[in-house]
Design brief:
heterodimer, A: about 325 residues, mainly alpha, 11 helices, B: about 325 residues, alpha+beta, 4-stranded mixed β-sheet, two-stranded antiparallel ribbon, 8 helices, 10 strands, about 25% helix
Chain lengths: ~325, ~325
């Protein structure tokens, strides 16, 4: 504990340990949060400093990217479905939405690089051990198809190529939406890593919910039935997988419930449910309800991604989340 | 398919000769913290040799440590830990009697005060931390550009002309070693003095260490030496001595730079049981694939003419 008398820094510490407990000292700021039922268990640390280096990614770039990538991927699937079932407005709107979203996500990705001019180095090699390398190739395959699909539909030119690109983008879309889960989970950040089993389903559900929201927003209720179902089923998948994930994660789920991340995650749940109810159910009859529900679903998906992002940063900044589970694992093994 | 992926994930790791046909032996560091005197010559030598910019002139209040921790501009970091505890069977503590009065001048008459009542049990742990050059290195695994690579010496190095500053290696490292340099955008870390190794020289930190706390050499030999040193310390009554990162069966496949510590790793700011995150990657890919298929079929079902759910007309 910086700047405190070592003899009073932690009265509960064993006498041989004076540099301890990252959890202590933050209690004052937590006063307004709910009281912990059990006091934090003790754990060793070096002056309470984090073990991990904090992620350098900016939330505005990378959390936005997670949201936009999901929206783009799922919108392309919806666009392909709408194309094949003759829902013209839904198809055109989803293609346009996918192109705008994937362009935004590319901008966010490049903007976050320390050396944006070297973006093309991403395509220097193919590495299945790096979700970012796999993602770069997925985007390289998906982006142009999403672009061609949107532009041919908007201009009416080259309908054959447009149809092929629409279906191609629809096939790449789910991969673009789901790979971001390994992207985040393949790190040492406790909250990002520990939910890796359920996270792809949280992100896939969130993507479906967002694309459904977009579809309800841009298509008349007569065409938007699949979009409404997407917000209901996608939202249910997201919330179900999220509940399962948090239960399984243990200590590292804590940042998902506290502070800024906790607020965002709670808002995400409320908005996703509101989107499914207002848009998915009431939107069948009312265009206004569909639009309001659509916006709620989109906002809910964004909140999920930002909440998850911030929770991970919190878990990297507090050594407790790194040290305690590892120490407990060692003790279990040696028991 | 999963086992293929697992092989591919570890193909450039030292157990497979790092992908080199006829590599030299694997080199590394053995940092014996029991003889570290906290002089920080390693920090200085590292900065000088590698031309690393300053990492801030701050006063932390953490004992003699004003460096803080490893990062883009700190490739060696000496930790200082003050503890109320004797170092092994250390004499001249409050617990041991028998001090000798030298009769030196003092405020009281010679012989009246032994000084013993002012002494307390105390030990000062110092440890020079560095990149672990893991056998299974997460930073190298997740690097999308191939800027991070395995050298012929079994070490892990960033190619500064290729790194595009994506920052993926930063949260991937389980030890908090590699970091991004803000004004530069790229990531930096210890290279185990790749340039010096190539010229047959030992790394700058090991060269400058006055007590040989930092020992450089072939990893196999260092491991043998470390085992002997732990035995020696245990026999001398320093029962706290333990090795950290020496075990090829640990979560990172053993570190190329390992340590002899005198307390739990977390007291030094080290993770007690780090695991390379890519160990779970085959499972992550499987589950992401499953989620993608779920998304595709789920949305396709939403377009089916007569779905089994919804649409009550």
């Amino acid at each position: 504990m910086t700047g405190t008398d070592p003899h009073t820094a932690d009265a509960t510490a064993p006498p041989e340990r004076e540099a301890v407990t990252g959890a202590r000292g933050r209690g004052r700021r937590r006063r307004r949060a709910e009281q912990a039922m059990v006091p934090d268990a003790k754990f060793g640390s070096y002056y309470g400093k984090p073990v991990l280096n904090k992620p350098t990614w900016a939330a505005a770039d990378i959390a936005s990217y997670l949201f936009l990538g999901g929206l783009a991927g799922a919108s392309s699937v919806m666009a392909a479905g709408a194309d094949l079932t003759g829902r013209r407005t839904l198809a055109r709107g989803c293609k346009a939405g996918a192109l705008v979203a994937v362009s935004g996500s590319l901008y966010a990705l490049i903007h976050d690089l320390g050396r944006p001019m070297r973006f093309v180095n991403m395509l220097r090699t193919v590495k299945p051990s790096s979700p970012m390398s796999v993602g770069s190739w997925l985007l390289a395959g998906y982006g142009p198809q999403a672009g061609i699909a949107a532009l041919t539909d908007a201009t009416g030119l080259l309908p054959g190529i447009g149809r092929a690109a629409t279906i191609g983008a629809g096939m790449f879309g789910p991969a673009v939406a789901a790979y971001t889960a390994p992207l985040m989970a393949d790190t040492a950040v406790p909250t990002w890593h520990d939910g890796y089993r359920e996270l792809p389903f949280v992100f896939a559900g969130s993507a479906a919910s967002a694309a459904g929201g977009w579809g309800m927003l841009i298509a008349p209720p007569g065409e938007a039935a699949p979009a409404r179902r997407a917000t209901i089923v996608g939202g249910a998948l997201e919330l179900g997988a999220k509940t399962l994930m948090e239960r399984r994660m243990g200590l590292s789920a804590e940042p998902l419930r506290q502070g800024k991340a906790g607020k965002l995650m709670r808002a995400a749940t409320a908005l996703t449910v509101a989107g499914a109810v207002v848009g998915g159910v009431l939107g069948r009859k009312s265009r206004a309800a569909a639009a309001a529900g659509g916006l709620a679903s989109l906002a809910g998906s964004a909140c999920t991604r930002f909440g998850f992002f911030h929770a991970g940063v919190t878990s990297a900044e507090d050594p407790k989340y790194t040290v305690r589970p590892q120490r407990e694992r060692l003790e279990r093994e040696h028991a | 398919m999963t086992s293929d992926l697992r092989d591919m994930l570890t193909s450039d790791d030292p157990p497979h000769d790092g992908g080199y046909d006829d590599p030299p032996p694997r080199y590394g560091f053995f940092t014996d913290t029991s003889v570290c005197i906290g002089c920080k010559a390693c920090e200085v030598a590292c900065k000088e040799w590698n031309g690393i910019p300053d990492d801030g002139l701050t006063f932390t209040g953490m004992s003699y440590d004003n460096t803080g921790g490893l990062g883009a501009d700190t490739w060696r970091h000496v930790a200082f830990i003050e503890q109320r505890k004797p170092l092994g069977s250390q004499v001249n503590t409050a617990a041991s009697a028998g001090t000798v009065d030298l009769g030196l001048p003092s405020m009281t008459k010679p012989g009246e005060e032994t000084g013993q009542e002012q002494r307390s049990e105390f030990r000062w742990l110092m440890s020079s931390d560095v990149c672990k050059h893991c056998t299974h290195a997460a930073c190298l695994d997740v690097c999308p550009t191939g800027a991070l690579f395995r050298t012929e010496f079994g070490t892990v190095v960033v190619q500064e002309d290729i790194c595009n500053g994506c920052g993926y290696c930063v949260p991937a490292c389980p030890y908090g070693v590699i970091d991004q340099r803000a004004d530069d955008g790229r990531v930096w870390k210890c290279t185990l003095c790749y340039d010096r190794l190539g010229a047959g020289q030992e790394p700058a930190c090991a060269k400058s260490c006055p007590t040989d706390s930092i020992q450089f050499g072939e990893l196999d030999e260092l491991r043998t030496r470390a085992d002997a040193r732990v035995r020696q310390l245990h026999e001398a009554g320093v029962t706290d001595a333990r090795l950290y990162g020496h075990d090829p069966d640990d979560g990172v496949g053993g570190a190329g730079a390992f340590f002899l510590l005198l307390d739990e790793p977390e007291a030094y700011g080290l993770p007690p049981d780090p695991v390379v995150t890519t160990r779970d990657l085959p499972d992550m890919w499987k589950r992401a694939g499953l989620a993608a298929v779920t998304l595709l079929t789920g949305l396709a079902a939403a377009f089916a003419r007569k779905p089994s759910f919804g649409r009550k007309r």
